[in-house]
Amino acid sequence: MPTTKTERLDIKASDDVVRVRQLTRAYALEVGLSLVDQTKVITASSELARNTLDYGGGGEVTVELVEQGGRRGVRLTFDDKGPGIVDIEQALKDGFTSGKGMGLGLGGAKRLCNDFSIASKPGEGTKVMIARWK
Amino acid sequence: MAGQAGSDIASLVSRNEATILPEWLELQKKAGTLHTGRISEGELQSQSKNFLHLLRDALAQGGSDVSNGAYEPAKAMLAELSRSRASQGFSPSETASFVFSLKQPLFNALNRDKSLSGEQIASTIWTTTVLLDELGLFTLEIFQKSREEVIIRQQREIAELSTPVVKLWDGILALPLIGTLDSQRTQVVMENLLQTIVDVEAEIAIIDITGVPMVDTLTAQHLLKTVAAARLMGADCLISGIRPQIAQTMVHLGVELNVISKSSLADAFAVALRQTGRAVVKTKRIDGAAVPDKKIGRQEA
Ligand SMILES: Nc1ncnc2c1ncn2[C@@H]1O[C@H](COP(=O)(O)OP(=O)(O)O)[C@@H](O)[C@H]1O
Ligand SMILES: [Mg+2]
How far is CA B95 from the centre of its chain? Predict the structure, then answer.
């Protein structure tokens, strides 16, 4: 899948979550997503950025403008070297939180996007990828 | 060595103050220090003279080592100047040029000085360069720090300013939210609203989120907490201005706010009036005076 444009951001503080949302918005606009789809992918990016910060102990995101079969999309990959997730199925379940959240972020991000994948190893970190296509 | 160079420069400054000061002022003016009218010529003159004296004293007592205690008064003055320029809106380079523009007049004075050998001049130029670079960087550092302080203060002020609680009618409050609800601001929002509910004994609070670009689970959680706390204070909350794209996103996220929501603040206000036993009626204007519409008038009779 060719990437035509890419940017990387550190996620180390609450302010960075705002920056991730702004960058996601810029890419979503460039892809030409509808207002509803923009809002969906921005909201998903906010959820995942906050998880990276709160549970992953900080990390980074790579935002990409991607193309496949004539379609354009925005893809985000969140990466941290935090404690990882022992039970991914449980983490994806609505209402499950190990903190004080609503437990809807991971499952919500999956529902808000076209592509979703997660890889995590306890003790090594977590990687979550989402994409929204035009 | 360094001590010798320090006192060389100190005496050079003493002997040539009458030429150094005007040359330095001229350069600062050329750099645009006075352009925006943020400081007056008199102020700039006294700042420059003051610093030149403090620098001369520091050089005489502490040599060219800026970490020497003798430099404290000069550094304190630079810190003060840096802070006030940061708050007056000077740029970093405009601020640092105060120190850097002193190099040229000092070098000119050195070159004119007949009592120094070529070798002495070369080493003094080097010492002066290093010294002024260090002081210039010090100025920039303080500038940066105070700019950060200004930003933090403004963020706090904006947090308070942008969350006004508005009284719409007896017992009815509105809270128009603008921007994303990060946690620091939400705290302020919540406290403001709850305090006003108590102060005016409000029955209904309308939280309007027309100006909120996105509602993620953290924002939703903050809203829910605010609604719950308002209930404890005896007020019901209505939410208005949820835009269609946000409503759809919330459905996919799986968050429910469990409060009456209306698309506009006006609709929510109508609900609030009804719930508090009031209604808005249309009137016709006759001879400049507002009287109730005939039909409504008859209904009321
Ligand atoms: N990057 C991450 N690193 C470690 N654990 C994570 C990460 N992201 C999510 N989790 C785990 O998954 C759970 C569910 O996440 P989420 O659905 O976003 O709900 P919430 O953030 O409200 O807890 C979290 O409580 C946490 O235990
Ligand atoms: Mg989460």
Answer: 18
Task: Select the residue of B221, B245, B248 nearest A102 (Cβ to Cβ).
Answer: B221
Question: For residue A38, which residues of chain B lie inside 8 Å, CB to CB?
Answer: 245
Number of domains in chain A: 1
Do B194 and B108 share a domain, yes or no? no
Domain that holds residue A109: 3-133
Instruction: Using an 8 Å CB-CB cutoff, list chain A residues near B221.
Output: 101-102
Residues in contact with B183: Cβ distance below 8 Å, sequence separation at least 6, in sequence order: A14, B218, B222
Tell which residue, A54, A60, A57, has the closest CA to residue A99.
A54
ipTM: 0.96
Q: Are residues B175 and B95 in the same domain?
A: no
Nearest to A23 by CA among A40, A56, A45, A2: A45
Q: pLDDT tens for residues B148-194?
A: 888 887 777 676 666 789 999 999 999 998 877 766 677 787 888 99
Identify whether B85 is part of a domain. Answer: yes
